């Protein structure tokens, strides 16, 4: 009897161990009818419940009504919000027949990504001196005069120190 119960228990353990990877690999069920994903500062909601279109609303903390959130129209069953700041939000999708496809909470943890669209021209513009783009004869003459005045002032100062 003792051997039989040990074999039965080990059989259950093996069966549970075999079923565990299958349970973990299965996609998560979305009982709310929508799937919400985040990537950086972008939130995307997808649903198959709204065959005739609808709207999605991204509600921040303290917003309880669909109309208070950032609303976007569904395109091919999905909608996307970009430039979303860090925080916890609630996504609500309402179909065009005014039925709610689903509600789901989402946490955005990345700040918006800033990308440059063009390269800056010229050097660094760090104040009045760096803002000048006129490099004509007058600019060079004025710069040369200032350098000469600085050299003459330095020589005059050093000669007065010796005396």
Give the helix proportion (percent range).
Answer: 25-40%
Largest sheet, spatial ordering of strands: 4-3-6-7
Could you say which structural class the secondary elements and strand pairing correspond to?
A: alpha+beta
Count of helical stretches: 2
Structure description:
The protein has 163 residues and is of the alpha+beta class. Strands 4-3-6-7 form a four-stranded antiparallel sheet, with no helix packed on it. The protein has a three-stranded antiparallel sheet with strand order 1-2-5, with no helix packed on it. The chain has helices at 2-25, 137-162; strands at 34-39, 42-47, 54-59, 70-73, 78-81, 87-95, 100-108. It is rod-shaped and about 90 Å long. The model is unreliable at 10-31 (pLDDT under 50). It is 31% helix and 27% strand. The N and C termini lie far apart (117 Å).
Can you lay out the helices and strands and say which pair or pack?
Blueprint: H1 2-25, E1 34-39, E2 42-47, E3 54-59, E4 70-73, E5 78-81, E6 87-95, E7 100-108, H2 137-162
Antiparallel strand pairs: 1-2, 2-5, 3-4, 3-6, 6-7
């Amino acid at each position: 009897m003792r051997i039989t119960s040990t074999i039965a228990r080990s059989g259950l353990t093996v069966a549970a161990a075999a079923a565990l990877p299958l349970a973990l690999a299965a996609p998560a069920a979305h009982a709310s009818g929508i799937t919400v994903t985040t990537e950086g500062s972008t939130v995307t909601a997808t649903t198959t419940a709204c065959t005739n279109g609808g709207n999605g609303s991204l509600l921040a903390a303290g917003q309880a009504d669909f109309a208070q959130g950032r609303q976007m129209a569904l395109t091919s069953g999905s909608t996307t919000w970009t430039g979303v700041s860090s925080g916890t939000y609630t996504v609500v999708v309402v179909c065009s027949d005014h039925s709610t496809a689903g509600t789901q909470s989402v946490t955005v943890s990345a700040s918006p990504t800033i990308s440059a669209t063009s390269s800056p021209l010229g050097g660094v513009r760090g104040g009045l001196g760096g803002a000048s783009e006129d490099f004509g004869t007058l600019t060079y003459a004025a710069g040369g005069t200032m350098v000469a005045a600085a050299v003459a002032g330095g020589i005059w100062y050093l000669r007065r120190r010796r005396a």
